[in-house]
Model the fold of this input.
Amino acid sequence: MNPSAERQPGAALPLDPDPVRQFSAWLEEARATGLVEPNAMTLATASRDGVPSARMVLLKGVDAQGFTFFTNYQSRKGRELDENPAAALVFWWETLQRQVNVTGTVRRVPDTESDAYFATRPFGSRIGALASRQSSVLPDRAELDRRVAELIQRHRDGIVPRPAWWGGYRLAPGTIEFWQGQADRLHDRQLYTRQADGTWRVERLSP
Done:
């Protein structure tokens, strides 16, 4: 018997008309599986000249405005986003055989929003944001450890203000694709594309 003849076809994705609500539902399902960092995502950026780079960051919020994350504005990703605000996100939840791909335009969030989030971070993470000149060349680990020790002493009262070079970005999505793994690599893919009037067009894509 042909093995493929025994394959049970996967069910079509029952998706919400609003991709942000759909994403939030998938994120909650990923959290329920016990993943260590279900909000981990690949952030892809590019320089002014189109040279790409990618790294893992953590999603810290999602709503109708977009997907929010925080970082050092002077890091490579920060510099590239200032030069070229087009970016992409990829979420991968292996246990559910699901991924979500998002493309859009990134802008900094208001300072008040960055201040509020920074204040919720653990003391060590706030000190780390002050100590690290992210993406710059570091002579050795001892130099970083020295900065951290000095800052811990300076802020031993526990009050660590948000540095001006650190804050949030929000990606306003133009497209959101939902990918559900299926048998025989006949994966289920649906693409939402934002229209000029703010509504979403939904199309099924070939695997």
Q: What stands out?
A: Confidence is low (pLDDT under 50) at residues 1-11. The longest helix spans residues 19-32. Helices lie at 19-32, 76-83, 111-120, 123-131, 141-154.
